[in-house]
Design goal:
single chain; mainly alpha; 2 domains; elongated; disordered C terminus
Length: 181
């Protein structure tokens, strides 16, 4: 992947995360600056990258759609259902890049989406397992490993599992899928 592709992906991830309230507007501006330095360019991107931290909170909402469109990237409206999946996948990439611990990742996923989003149901279940470590038969390291497997699946763009492979638990997840039932 070229540096411009990586910068475009990073900007897209920051935009998706911002639309879901997971990063600050100033983080989007920083990603826009990085994109310019990497060689991406459009009038909208230059305007976005020129914002100060103070201006970012007020102006990113207005400027981001045009900046992304000028680069062929997608804008996800704030708190939209369409932005949930790209934001989850962006968080997975951040966890795999060691910007988040597995525990922080599952916590954010569960508190944002609960157990309702099929794409993240397994992660919500794993977050529950962190909460019950003292009563379960797994170690933190084992749960961390399962979280990394799920994060790699998400980062690769794989869909959510569609067929149950085990017995439903009290959260609607599947115990058998992880060898717990």
């Amino acid at each position: 992947m070229t540096s411009t592709e990586a910068a475009a992906n990073a900007l897209q991830d920051h935009a998706a995360l911002w639309s879901m309230g997971d990063v600050r507007a100033s983080d989007v501006v920083s990603a826009a600056c990085d994109a310019l330095v990497a060689g991406l360019d459009s009038p909208g991107l230059r305007i976005l990258a020129a914002l100060t931290r103070a201006e970012a909170d007020y102006d990113v909402h207005e400027l981001l759609p045009e900046a992304l469109e000028g680069l062929g990237l997608t804008f996800y409206p704030v708190d939209s259902e369409t932005g949930a999946e790209p934001a989850v996948r962006a968080l997975a990439r951040r966890m795999l890049a060691a910007e988040l611990t597995p525990r922080q990742f599952t916590f954010r996923i569960r508190h944002r989406h609960g157990h309702e989003l099929a794409l993240t149901a397994e992660l919500a279940d794993l977050d529950d397992e962190y909460d019950t470590l003292e009563y379960g038969d797994k170690t933190t390291a084992q749960i961390d490993a399962e979280v990394r497997v799920e994060a790699r699946r998400l980062a690769a763009g794989s869909p959510a599992p569609t067929e149950p492979t085990g017995t439903p638990n009290s959260h609607g997840g599947e115990l058998g899928r992880r060898g717990l039932g």
